[in-house]
Each structure stands twice: as C-alpha cells, then as structure tokens.
Write a structure and sequence with these properties.
Helices cover about 30% and strands about 20% of the residues. The protein has five helices and six strands. The model has no long low-confidence stretch (mean pLDDT about 95).
Amino acid sequence: MSTPVVKEQDVKKNWYVIDATDKVIGRLAVEVARILTGKKKPEYVDYIDVGDFVVIVNAEKVKFTGNKWNDKKYYRHSGYPGGLTEVVAKDMLAKHPERIIINAVKGMLPKNKLRALRLKKMKVYTGAEHPHAAQKPEKIEL
C-alpha cells in the first residue's frame, strides 16, 4: 500500500479569526504558525503549502510576560555602515502593533521557501474590524 500524493489544488483552505486581546504573544504565535503550516491537517506534507488563512484582530492588546515591554528589542539594518536600528517593544506597540505579531510568527515558521507564502496568508489588524467577512472566517478561541 502506497501513501497518496497530496496536491496543493486538492487541499481545502479555511479562514480563521483570532482575537489577540490579552493573549501572550509567544503562545499566540505558536498556534498561528501551526495553523499557517497546516500541521493539524491529516493531509500535511512539509513541501507543499497546505495551511489555512488566519485573520488576527486587536493586535494592540497583546501581552508580554515579565519585563519584556522594556527589555525586548527589535533590530533592523539598512545595509549601510552604522545603519542598525533598535526599537523597544513598548515603542513598537505604540507605532506599529501589528509588527509585533508578524515578527513573532515569522520566527516560529520554518526557515524555507514556503515561509513567505505562509506569512502572506496571515492578516493582522489593530482594531476589532477586518475586511474579510466575505470569506466567512471561523472564530477560534486559544
């Protein structure tokens, strides 16, 4: 008996909504990464993108444990000498709260060619509203 070969067009992709209010960022990122990769599906294979779409609302209401609001730093580099920029998590929350979740989930995904495709299937919004009502997403409680 041979294992059936899964094709990407045969996989049904669902939409899910997750409310990030009072969720710890690391625990939220683990569950979102698991949904994006499709690890809970029986037809999961690591070389095909079989994951689902995720819409995250209320990104500005996430939590960090401990003193990470002041201690955690996000780095980026412009490519020029002296172009390293660091931003504290508290400042990142004030300016771009959705980037906190995007960076956390990006770090949880496997570092391969499917990573960018999987990140495109995650939509993060700061308020409680999102424009994806036509896809009829299911609400998930984590």
